[in-house]
């Protein structure tokens, strides 16, 4: 079963194999008040930050973690195995880069299948995938029947992307405000990720919009 069939079960849409959906914490590390520089103290803090992420990966707390490489406000994202947003904040507050003010954090809980993430490879080899926020779109005027039909088409589309091996993580935010869900594509280029994401019936209808970022994560973390 792919992740979006699992989500279909959670939403009460028929599927053949039941699966348990659980809540993970998405920790976004955004630019903090201390600027990144090329001096030795900053390089040392970045090295300590990377070692801290490796430690979280080794103890099973950090399930997938790495930088967005497009130079935007969000510097890095961590999927954390923590019971609550408060616990995730407590864990990440010990990160040397957070303590030094290089990053400030925002934590959003989201749902995905239990046991979805794998063990990070050693050494710390990385791959580039494409992380998408599914955000609230400009056209949410559909009546309940129309919205329900779009949801079914959306789930079917996501499942097809998963069956092709292109969609490797997806799930809804528990209470994300403008952020409604997460998608992660394993494809060759940003252009392909954008094309696949924009093929979603929800996005075509304007009920959702996608915000994509290149994301470097440890190999083995995502299926």
Rounded to an integer in angstroms, the radius of gyration calculated over CA atoms is: 18 Å
Averaged pLDDT, please? 90
Strand-residue fraction? 25-35%
Q: What's the assembly state of these chains? A: single chain
The dominant shape is globular
The CATH class name reads Alpha Beta
Question: What's the number of helices?
Answer: 7
- Tell me the CATH superfamily: Dimeric alpha+beta barrel
Low-pLDDT residue spans: 1-6, 8-16
Largest beta sheet: strand ordering = 2-3-1-4
Helix proportion range: 25-40%
Question: Strand tally, please?
Answer: 8
What kind of sheet is the major sheet?
Answer: 4 strands, antiparallel
CATH architecture: 2-Layer Sandwich
Query: How many domains is the backbone divided into?
Result: 1
Element pattern in H and E: HEHEEHHEEHEEHHE
Provide the CATH topology.
Alpha-Beta Plaits
* Spatial gap, N to C terminus: 12 Å
Which structural class best describes the helix and strand composition? alpha+beta
């Amino acid at each position: 079963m792919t992740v979006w069939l699992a989500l279909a079960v959670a939403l009460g849409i028929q599927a053949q194999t039941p699966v348990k959906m659980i809540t993970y914490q998405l920790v976004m590390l955004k630019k903090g008040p201390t600027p990144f520089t090329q001096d030795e103290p900053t390089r040392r803090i970045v090295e300590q930050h990377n070692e801290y992420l490796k430690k979280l990966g080794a103890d099973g707390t950090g399930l997938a973690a790495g930088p967005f490489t497009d130079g935007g406000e969000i510097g890095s994202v961590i999927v954390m195995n923590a019971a609550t947003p408060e616990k995730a904040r407590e864990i990440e507050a010990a990160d040397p880069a957070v303590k030094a003010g290089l990053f400030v954090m925002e934590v959003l809980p989201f749902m995905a299948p239990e046991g979805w993430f794998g063990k990070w490879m050693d050494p710390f080899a990385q791959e580039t995938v494409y992380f998408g926020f599914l955000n609230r779109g400009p056209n949410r005027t559909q009546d309940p029947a129309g919205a329900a039909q779009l949801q079914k088409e959306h789930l079917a589309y996501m499942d097809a992307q998963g069956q092709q091996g292109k969609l490797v993580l997806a799930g809804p935010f528990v209470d994300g405000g403008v952020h409604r869900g997460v998608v992660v594509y394993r494809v060759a280029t940003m252009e392909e990720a954008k094309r696949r994401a924009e093929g979603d019936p929800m996005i075509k209808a304007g009920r959702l919009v996608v915000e994509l970022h290149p994301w470097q994560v440890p190999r083995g973390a995502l299926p």
